[in-house]
Design a protein that fits this description.
The protein is α+β, with helices and mostly antiparallel strands. The protein has 6 helices and 24 strands.
């Protein structure tokens, strides 16, 4: 299908400053030093702010981008990474600093659009599939001709096949809300063991979340750097579970090949801007399986369990519930084995209409009596550009 080109321009808007309450000239001033007002931004961006004079007066400083929490810091340097994405589109960045005397400083900066880029409709559907036998053991060594795939009952020809044992793009999101305090050390050990079981050519992005989301490591392949990143996890704040699911899926959709989101939480979502319905709609158009681990309160909240079960089943992932923090290591080890055994199938659907309807997917193993295939249940054929 030919690409269409969109040309868009926007006028730069100056920085917005709204230090509250009004303070004398000698009082600290909050400034966003990056990005600059009216800048063109794309890709991985480092957000920076400064408080002059006296940055030691800051109790907490938080960044948001387009209304979404990016990170929260308690000491300088006040900077954190944010993945803008490939396009150059307008964004609003906001920084809020809460001082130790209770005063609140706010600064905003707008960046602008200047884009000449192709908007291409991508029709290929990707399906991650895991095959097990009647005893739950993983079936490995299967080839392209071992699989049959159906969309709404209609056979589909595979256009791509990636076997197990190939590099992966992984996003691991770890709950570090205040309730994790007593279990944080055991959680760090379990996460380190999990990361130690990954391939050195896997790309790992480690997200930490409470009522904000922090990128602790970005597409890291160095095993030592992965381990060091885990040491930065520290418990405080609330829980923005749905927000971090959306962030993780957004990061994964920018990459190709085998992908997965692994999510650990110990509590109910109370701080997300997104809703469970928002997340379900996003999963319907995502190719990444979601592995959810719930511990503590997360195992007792029936509403939360229904949501997590739905996300895992819909995406072709799995949901785990543990009563004790010392069970985490075993769960993480099981997820590593699951990921190692995953196949990636792709096809160009015979029904090329992008009409917003739900399309069911079924994957079978040829001659695989007694074998069970776990894969995404289907996808929503969203219109192009949505």
């Amino acid at each position: 299908m030919p690409a269409t080109f969109v040309l868009a321009f926007a006028l730069a808007a100056g920085p917005l400053q709204e230090n509250m309450p009004a303070s004398p000239a000698s009082a600290p001033q909050l400034t966003i030093s990056a990005p600059a007002p009216g800048a063109f931004v794309s890709g991985l961006l480092t957000l920076r702010a400064r408080v002059d004079p006296g940055p030691e007066q800051v109790r907490r400083l938080s960044f948001t981008a387009d209304g979404q929490a990016v990170c929260s810091l308690e000491r300088p340097p006040f900077e954190c990474p944010w993945d803008v994405g490939p396009g150059v589109t307008p964004h609003v960045f906001r920084v809020v600093a809460v001082l130790r005397d209770g005063r609140r400083l706010v600064a905003n900066v707008r960046t602008v659009a200047a884009r000449l880029a192709p908007a291409v409709e991508v029709a290929v559907v990707q399906v991650a599939a895991t095959v097990t036998d009647g005893k739950g053991r993983f079936a490995r060594g299967l080839g392209r001709n071992s699989f049959r795939l159906f969309e709404d009952g209609v056979p589909q020809a595979l256009s791509h096949f990636v076997g197990e044992g190939t590099p992966r793009e992984l996003v691991v999101a770890v709950d570090m809300s205040g309730s994790m305090g007593p279990a944080m050390e055991a959680c760090r050990r379990a996460v380190k063991a999990f990361l130690g079981g990954l391939r050195t050519d896997d790309h790992l992005t480690l997200l930490a979340f409470n009522d904000s989301i922090f990128t602790v490591a970005s597409r890291e392949t160095n095993p030592a750097a992965r381990q060091l990143a885990v040491d930065r996890l520290a418990p405080w704040g609330g829980t923005a579970l749905f927000d971090v699911v959306l962030r993780g899926l957004d990061l994964l959709e920018r990459q190709r090949g085998r992908r997965a989101l692994v999510l650990f939480t110990d509590g109910e979502d109370r701080d997300s801007h997104a809703t469970a319905q928002d997340v379900a709609r996003r999963v319907e158009v995502s190719a990444a399986p979601i592995y959810v681990i719930a511990q503590g309160k997360g195992t007792r909240e029936q509403g939360l369990k229904r949501v997590m079960d739905r996300l895992a089943d819909l995406s072709g992932g799995r949901a785990f519930y543990t009563d004790r923090i010392d069970e985490l290591a075993g769960v993480f080890a099981e997820i590593v084995e699951d990921l190692d055994s995953q196949y990636l199938l792709a096809y160009d659907p015979t029904n090329a209409a992008r009409d917003g309807t739900w399309r069911s997917i079924k994957v079978e193993v040829v001659g695989g009596a007694g074998l069970r295939v776990r894969a995404r249940q289907g996808y929503r054929a969203a219109p192009a550009g949505r």
